[in-house]
Design a protein that fits this description.
single chain; 417 residues; alpha+beta; Cytochrome p450; 5-stranded mixed beta sheet; 3-stranded antiparallel beta sheet; 19 helices; globular
Length: 417
């Protein structure tokens, strides 16, 4: 019996609410027993879940055997399914996340002209200001749901300002974009999801038209006018790239803040270290990204050539998902991986991926996470959970890892002014 057959015989719960509440024991079991696990999808196809750090890293590095655009698999059935996608689907997915070289190289080059480190760094003052404003809105109440009142609105404010979306349109844009992640992640049915996606596309088309003739000092204007050797982003590429920035620009940060607060509240010794040494906040963000990061698995890859991985045969056309959350807890790579240690020195986590598809927005997420978490813990005295951990509800889906809510309390008599 081949290792491939053995992996098919293993049964792992990857979708229940119990698993979402604490997936790490299951991931540890998978790394030991079936580090390349073939899960049968509802349509009968196999999705390979890869959980060991070294194999995950190998796949993320390998642009020869794996592709992000299924049309590049060379398998007519797989490519045909991708080619039959609707116009709306193309307006969402014609971006560098779902493309391969040389098109990926072209897209990343054009987008990097606009999404610069300097543009991100300039958001620091605004992020701090909005952080203070949001906390000011609930600091005298003594308790709040941090997700709805803080973790969700903050990154929405930031990405909308960065893009140049007017404040009066921010709530609509956030509501529309949430429908794109997955039909079940925000409890939306198919019809509601489709309507919201179409509303967002129509809105962006209007904004692109305005910025093409009257550019402003914002990211959308920079993207509209980005050019290299006469090449510019098409309408579909513009739309899908801005949608990608909106979705990833706030979803990952929401989860980084929410998961980060929860992890720190469950590790009081680490909070004490931070109070004694605030210079550890940069390191803390990196450890939170490793310990319980905002992304559970990568988006899908497809094998474009047969490949033997760790004794398991992956066939051309097979779908693969690397489990970043598992790789970041691999005891073969991290010492005491299930312990949160904010002074950890060697921390090459994969929370933002690796290689050519490394998250372009990682510097922005890090900046927002550091400012939000530090300000929150330095402002609210004796911050603590309102309810037991086992009552927390986690978002559905395999892509993102985040809380639906996070109710906390603090001592209002000792609030830092």
């Amino acid at each position: 019996m081949s290792d491939s057959s053995i992996s098919h015989e293993q049964k792992f719960d990857l979708f229940s609410s119990k698993f979402k509440a604490d997936p790490f024991p299951t991931f540890a079991h998978m790394r030991r027993e079936a580090p390349i696990y073939g899960h049968k999808a509802p349509d009968g196809s196999t999705i390979w879940y890869i959980t060991k750090y070294e194999i995950v890293l190998a796949v993320l590095r390998d642009n020869i055997h794996f592709c992000k655009d299924p049309r590049n698999t060379g398998i007519p059935e797989v490519a045909g399914n991708a080619s039959r996608k609707t116009t709306t689907h193309r307006l969402i997915n014609e971006n560098m996340l779902f493309s391969d070289p040389p098109n990926h190289t072209r897209l990343r080059s054009l987008i990097s002209q606009a999404f610069t480190p300097q543009r991100i760094a300039h958001q620091s003052g605004f992020i701090q200001e909005k952080t203070y404003q949001l906390i000011e809105g609930f600091r005298d109440k003594g308790e709040v749901d941090l997700i709805s009142a803080f973790a969700l609105p903050l990154p929405v404010f930031v990405i909308c300002r960065l893009l140049g979306i007017p404040d009066e349109d921010r709530e609509n844009v956030a509501r529309w974009s949430q429908a794109i992640i997955s039909p079940g992640s925000r409890n939306l049915n198919f019809s509601a999801r489709k309507q919201r996606v179409q509303s967002l596309i129509q809105y962006l088309t209007h904004i692109f038209s305005l910025r093409s003739t009257r550019p402003q000092d914002d990211l959308i204007s920079a993207l509209v006018h980005a050019e290299e050797a006469g090449d510019k982003l098409s309408d579909a590429e513009l739309s899908s790239m801005v949608i990608l920035l909106i979705v990833t620009g706030h979803e990952t940060t929401v989860n980084l803040i929410g998961n980060g607060v929860l992890a720190l509240l469950q590790n009081e010794d680490q909070c004490l270290k931070l109070r004694n040494d605030p210079l550890l906040w940069d390191n803390t963000v990196e450890e939170l990204l490793r310990y319980d990061g905002p992304v559970e698995t990568s988006t899908s890859r497809w094998a474009c050539k047969d490949i033997m991985l760790d004794g398991c045969q992956i066939r051309q056309g097979d779908q693969v998902r690397v489990v970043l959350a598992s790789a970041n807890r691999d005891s073969d790579h991290f010492q005491f991986p299930d312990t949160m240690e904010i002074s950890r020195v060697n921390n090459p986590h994969l929370a933002f991926g690796y290689g050519i598809h490394y998250c372009l927005g990682a510097p922005l997420a890090r900046l927002e996470g550091k400012i939000a978490l530090r300000t929150l813990f330095e402002t609210l005295d004796h911050l603590r959970l309102k309810n037991p951990v086992n009552q927390l509800k986690w978002r559905k889906g395999v892509l993102f890892r985040g809380l639906q809510n996070l109710e906390v309390r603090w001592d209002v008599t000792k609030i830092a002014k």
